[in-house]
Amino acid sequence: MNLFLNYLTVTALFALVALPAAIGFVRERRIDRQLRDAERGEAARTEARSAARPYKVTRRSYPQGWAKA
Average of pLDDT values for 14-36? Predict the structure, then answer.
């Protein structure tokens, strides 16, 4: 009986230590799946209608520099 409780204690401690790593692994897999879907364009098609167009900013070139001498 004592041996069984020792094994049970070690198993419970291992599960307690491994649980955060398992949760992180599952989260990473979900993020990878979302990135893969976005790369294929599956998510872009559904969001393309509601997304705003990006604003194009043009930069002026100042031949004499920005500081006045």
Answer: 95
